[in-house]
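Example record for the data management plan.
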Amino acid sequence: MRFIDKKQKLDYLLSLISEQNTGTASQLAERLCISKPTAEKYLALLREDGHNIGYCTRRRTYYQISENK
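Corresponding structural encoding:
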């Protein structure tokens, strides 16, 4: 995969997270046309970059955890 492809997928992933529209890890992998382990790796990369990402089991989606709690 080229760097630009990965960057585009990470940007798309961030937009899905901000909209709380990712679905489960498996659904997310399908949307991004990657494997589930790669989707989990991308989430880990975003967390390493300082994004505070959580997962809601009731809504089955990843979301951005707000800092203003």
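Summary line stored alongside the record: Strands lie at 53-56, 61-64.
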